[in-house]
């Protein structure tokens, strides 16, 4: 005796003989909205753009289950089953790490000491470096600076004993 299924969309009963696949079409798998639909309703839902396929976990689900979140300039739309973005397959955490880098400035002194500062934006890093150089100029210890690389600057200072010191300022990005 053949198992009889009932389409949750149109209410029509069907058997596996009526299906294109060896099993009935299930949408919203492993969610509280999981349901079985006949091939005709599945095709209609697909044609009406009511369904989305997750390439990560392989389920078909209704678009109404997608809840989008804007992260920087990216629209994150997690699959209701695997929680990965339905477009690029990233988790929310992976996307946040990629979209929210930290901007670092490392001050390397000629005595071997160094200090690294983290900033949420490039602009704040630039303001901080500019302020440090202005402070050195106001103290009267600044002698000059030279760019040795687009992301590195050498600053020459002089202490009270008129001894010259080199400080290297290195910019880098850290992706969390």
Explain what this protein looks like in three dimensions.
The structure is a single chain. The protein is α+β, with helices and mostly antiparallel strands. The chain folds into two domains: 5-98, no CATH class; 101-175, no CATH class. It has helices spanning 39-47, 92-99, 122-139, and strands spanning 5-6, 13-14, 25-27, 35-37, 51-53, 60-62, 69-71, 74-76, 101-109, 114-119, 142-149, 152-158, 164-175. The strands form five sheets. Strands 10-9-13-12-11 form a five-stranded antiparallel beta sheet. The protein has a two-stranded antiparallel ribbon with strand order 1-2. A hairpin with a 2-residue loop joins strand 7 and strand 8 (74-76). It is rod-shaped and about 100 Å long. The two termini are 58 Å apart. The mean pLDDT is 89.
